[in-house]
Amino acid sequence: MSNCARCQxxxxxxxxxxxxxxxxxxxxxxxxxxxxxxxRAFALDTVAVEREFHRLSRRLHPDRFARGxxxxxxxxxxxxxxxxxxxxxxxxxxxxxxYLLKIEGHAVGEEHAGxxxxxxxxxxxxxxxxxxxxxxQLEEIRMSQRMGExxxxxxxxxxxxxxxxxxxxxxxxDAALQAxxxxxxxxxxxxxxQAAKKMIELLDRRRYVRNLVRDVRAAVTAQALQQELYGGNxxxxxx
Amino acid sequence: xxxxxxVVDHYNNPRNVGTLDKSSEEVGTGLVGAxxxxxxxRLQIRVNPETQVIEEAKFKxxxxxxxxxxxxxxxxxxxxxxxxxxLEIRNTDIVKELALPPVKIHCSVxxxxxxxxxxxxxxKKNGVAETEAVAAH
Lengths: 239, 137
Known about the structure:
- The complex is a heterodimer.
- By secondary structure, chain A is mostly helical.
- Chain A has helices spanning 32-35, 46-60, 70-91, 93-103, 125-146, 153-186, 189-230, 233-238.
- The relative contact order of chain A is 0.09.
- By secondary structure, chain B is an alpha+beta fold.
- Chain B has six helices and three strands.
- Chain B has helices at residues 5-12, 65-78, 83-86, 91-98, 105-126, 131-135; strands spanning 27-34, 39-47, 54-62.
- Chain B has a three-stranded antiparallel beta sheet with strand order 1-2-3.
């Protein structure tokens, strides 16, 4: 840990604020884990971090520095912004994984896409087929919904079942991510490299599944809304 | 992020959306995905067995505007080309034509992959050696 920029006392806890003199520090080079005085790890005690987030929010709040020096005011604004970003990302288990992999130097996310494309990144063909077919069905449903009709009950049942299956798949992927994260947290360099590779694969797979779960939910919600507005098809026909 | 006029045009009026008969000998099907965002794209071609000219191309893409525009453009471009000529299409050509921003370049890569996959499938069906095309890259 470094020393405070103002009073030169060694820093404890968060590097954003000096516990001794209360000076807000420059945010340069501080990662989201350091914000909370944490080592890089996939496992996170979110309850403790949330408590720390609120404590730091109060201590760093720009209102407290309104009459401070220009440096204090600037630092307080920047530190508050960093604190908010850090909490928003770290509290979400998937965003946390993506962030940690990124700062560990792995290529993750859309901005790295298409450069290192290899056969390894291809999802299993059966998953791709299934995702594609379900998307076709979802489109049919959306089309009939747009025409103000309810989709066939049998189609909806099928889609809802597929949605359930994919939600379960999402749960499995998330559990696997957590398990690999734990391996990384406890492991040596070789274990970490292997766990990171696994996590990148899991994230790749997860995006297909996540999109589908999202779209199925939207279709089911739209269907429920439509039936509330217009009544079910069979009701209309029987009138 | 703003989409270019060309992307918007392809998005609003996608060319050649649809399906070809997957089981036909003359049809090649490419199904590819972008793991970075979860988009999926299917591109199909119907090849004239005499001339090896791609006479028909259809696509279906579930993804963002750039992915739809890239695949729409890809079908326009492969139509009327021979299989060998279609393999010359590069994702960078698509990027240029559609003015895609860096973060959407992978959409054009996906479209190029889809063309290759469709042609690869057609070659496999028709017993055309794959080696020649692969060796060129």
